Amino acid sequence: MALQRSAILSWYDENARVLPWRVAPAARRAGARPDPYRVWLSEIMLQQTTVPHATPYFRAFTEAWPTVQALAAADGTEVLGAWAGLGYYARARNLIACARHVARELGGRFPNMEAELLKLPGVGPYTAAAIAAIAFDAPANVVDGNVERVMARLFAVETPLPQAKPQLKTLAAGFVSTERPGDWAQALMDLGATVCTPASPACGRCPARPHCRAHKAGSPERYPLKSPKAERPRRYGAAYVLTRGPLVALVRRPPRGLLGGMLALPTSDWRGRPWSDAELHAAAPACAPWRPAGEVEHVFTHFALTLRVARAEGDWAGALWRPRSDLEAMPSVFLKAARLALTA
Ligand code: ADE
Predict the structure, then answer these.
(1) Which of 47, 93, 255, 259 is the most exposed, fewest CB within 10 Å of its CB?
(2) Residue 6, SS3 per DSSP
(3) Residue nearest to atom 10 of ligand 1 (CA)
């Protein structure tokens, strides 16, 4: 363990990615510490998306709201608008709730203990461990998909995911030490993201190769093994792009539930069978000369959606009339539908 640990940490010293929320290993050694607000924000953004996708959002957020107090004081709909495109909008609502809690109840300071971090809105076991390790150098066991993959390969774990999760967590715990916990967590993340990748891992560049059982067995990409997944159910809906000159009719979705609180196109229900032309017209939000404009596909965590898109010029009293430049504040599924209708 100690050999692998120090090989991976030395590799990180040379190869750490330069990330806007990160304090580089040399600076950390010189005593610099990251801003817990930036670590928290980055971890929430990175929960379901990649570093390249999240980075521009991180820059925009920290420019608009450089401190937790600034984010806590922000207008909630503005924050949701800035989050559009990152997906998983319940996270954006929890982000606002968490910022307000930390600013108002905790004097603007994030807790430095994993157990206290876990009590914050939107902070689960992974995120609590990541913030404790990265922001406060606490010896927390930070296990995400990258770390699971690295452990499954180092130890050639034959149990498939998700059953292997507890075993992989225990294996990862064996490496946690009070020496450089923040760097260790980030070293494993970087190794998983840049070397020990899901397909075609770059074993030639891997500091842990001499100790890796999957490499020794000659088939690192076979790990982690995965149980066959149940197929996602499909739902069907209709979305309506109603224009009045340069303006587009939008709605604000109800605060709770899928895409809650977000600016959106008006839609029908989303159900288990497709919508016919007649049903498309009947479910429209306003009486207008609707024309079908095609359909878009979108994959959510728990289902796939086929959305028929209809387009018309007309009026509707229930609309929030917005310029086309505001369409960017909608979740991607609606942006795709609006683009289809407006460029068709
Ligand atoms: N993925 C999740 N958190 C990360 C972090 N702090 N650095 C790099 N990749 C990450």
Answers:
(1) 255
(2) helix
(3) 189
Residues identified as active-site: 43
> What spacing in Å lies between the alpha carbon of 186 and ligand 1's midpoint?
6
pLDDT for position 344: 65
Q: Which segments in the chain show pLDDT lower than 50?
A: none
Does one domain contain both 261 and 331? Answer: yes
Please state whether the predicted TM-score (pTM) of the whole model is above 0.85: no
Residue type, 102: V
Residues ≥6 apart with Cβ < 8 Å to 209? 203, 215
Give the chain's radius of gyration (CA, Å): 23
Q: Which region holds residue 274: left if phi is over 0, alpha if psi is between -120 and 50, else beta?
A: beta
Residue with CA nearest ligand 1 atom 3 = 43
Q: What is the CATH number of the domain that holds 151?
A: 1.10.1670.10
Spatial CA neighbour of 224 closest among 300, 145, 299 = 145
Q: Which atom belonging to ligand 1 lies closest to the Cα atom of 186? A: 7
Residues contacting residue 273 through CB under 8 Å, at least 6 positions apart: 236
Full residue range of the structural domain in which residue 308 is found: 234-343
| Protein residues with CB under 6 Å of any ligand 1 atom | 19, 42-43, 46, 51, 130, 134, 186, 189
